[in-house]
Amino acid sequence: MSAVTGGHERGWWRRNGVWLAVLPLAIAAAAVSWSFRLVNLWWPTELVHEADSAGAGGTAHYAGEYYDLGFDDPSLANTWVTREVDVQVLAVRPVEGLPRSVTAEIDSVPDGSAAWRIDLELAAAPGTALGSCQVMLVSSDGTRYGEGGATNDPLGQGNPCVPEDAPDALAPDAGTWQTSTVLLTRAGDTPEEVWFSFGSPDYVTLAVP
Fold first, then answer.
1. φ/ψ of residue 191, rounded to 5
2. Which stretches are transmembrane (predicted)?
3. Can you give the residue range of the structural domain that contains 200?
4. Is residue 34 in a domain?
């Protein structure tokens, strides 16, 4: 009886050996798939984490992670990188004219709107990636203007983190530089804060001088 039972056991292992061999691979693949689903389900798509704040004339420190695909630096491809930038609001003032741009959708301030120029001083390690930069004005009722950065700019100004004549979206060798960008708000709205971000979930807030 024991010999027959042993034969059945050996036969079962032979018949199912291939499936048992690939089972760990299937489990690993399922785990990877589930981890991507968790990222999709739980990674914030809104600005929900205030990394720092500063009063009028102060400097806020932005620090947030992003997944680098290696376009600017191949050595960073497929890695998580911490991006750190210091930002100070030099001035926020109303303007009547709009910046000239061949990609602008409008060339004058629309009726019912107001234009504001935001002057910033930024500091970061040379070569820091500045793509997806967003500079926003926030009114007293919490309305945000400028969210989306260059991808949501009818004035066609480009990246608000880099000077107009910059050849790429990287921090310059000087390490400290100034930029200006113009945002449209509703007429009558007075900006109270500047928000600075590179997309969800991190941002910093600075009081308008």
1. -65, 135
2. 17-36
3. 50-207
4. no
How far is the C-alpha of 111 from the C-alpha of 43, rounded, in Å? 39
The reported pLDDT for the residue numbered 163 is 87
Residue pair 163/181 in contact by the 8 Å Cβ criterion: no
Q: Which of 186, 187, 175, 183 is nearest to 208 (CA)?
A: 183
Round to whole Å and give the CA distance between 172 and 183.
24
User: Is residue 98 one of the residues assigned to a domain?
Assistant: yes
Are 138 and 147 spatial neighbours (Cβ–Cβ below 8 Å)?
no
For position 40, what pLDDT does the model report?
A: 43
75 in a structural domain: yes
The answer to whether residue 23 sits within a structural domain is no
Task: Give burial (CB, 10 Å; 0-12/13-18/19+) of 173.
Answer: exposed
The greatest distance separating any two alpha carbons of the chain, rounded to the nearest whole angstrom, comes to: 98
CA 48 to each of CA 63, 82, 197, 202, 203: distance values in angstroms, whole numbers, following the listed order: 14, 18, 11, 7, 8
Tell me, what's the pLDDT at 71? 86
Integer Cα distance of 10 and 21 in angstroms: 16
Distance from the Cα of residue 9 to its chain's centroid: 57
pLDDT at 73: 85
Number of domains in the chain: 1
**pTM summary value:** 0.77
CATH of the domain at 57: 2.60.40
